[in-house]
User: Fold this.
Amino acid sequence: MDVLQIAILGILLGGVYALMATGLTMLYGVMRVINLAHAAFMIVGAYIAFVLFRDFGIDPLLSMVVTGPALFVVGVLLYQLLFKRIADNPRFTEMTVLLTFGLALAIEGILGSIFSNIYHSTEPSYATGTIDLGSVFIPTGQLYGFIASLVLLAALWAFLYYTRPGYAIRATMQDRAAAQIVGVNVDRISALAFGIGVGLAGVAGSLLSYLFTFFPGSHLQWIGLLLALIVVGGLGSLAGAFVGAIGLSLIAAFAIDQLGPEWSYLTFYVLLFVILLVRPQGLFGKAETI
Assistant:
């Protein structure tokens, strides 16, 4: 396959991966939550998009105005019900691993009882279309997903850098204790950040619904990939999540072309292993000081 063609496919898919990973890394940056249920929330968003498309003919891209706010509310409620009460525990991060893993399994069970464990996907007209540009083509489904991801990431960036709640979130990500000292309501900001993180999973689910097939248990393959992306980029780094997603997706595209489709996910884990050997804190992460 032509090098330019491979690069186009890798970059377009990497943009969608970046949207998927951003909510996950932001939660770690603000609250030190390792959210193993993030991919499960993506699957919830995908099923909402699927139902809206199947029953009401609503385009998956338009369904993001439903999946995002709906999962945002779910995120805020989950923070208040489950995470707020353990926020001061010295082993909070370790506890979130177990808590979110259990939450992911519960979501999988609920979805399985409602939709059964068969594969689903939405099928808008553009999902399999292409734009031909001479010797290369651009898949319209991936292009629209890439554009939607960039728009949402740009909106998140503007929110973080040009609003007071955004300032508070960034301050909390940099130093939670210092932010609290200068008057940031860390509890409220944590609830907001948790809602945004889960909401981003919801809108990513709308894109996932037509770019990939899914079933209730498919969150297990996605969470490994997303964790690889944010660890390579640097835990808690939004820029790292974006660069890591684009870079790893690009490398994976070339690996698939040269080595075969079985390297689709394996590439991410091999690169994760290499990065951890060379730079354990990730590309944009900060080394721990003792």
In short: The two ends are 49 Å apart (CA to CA). The mean pLDDT is 89.
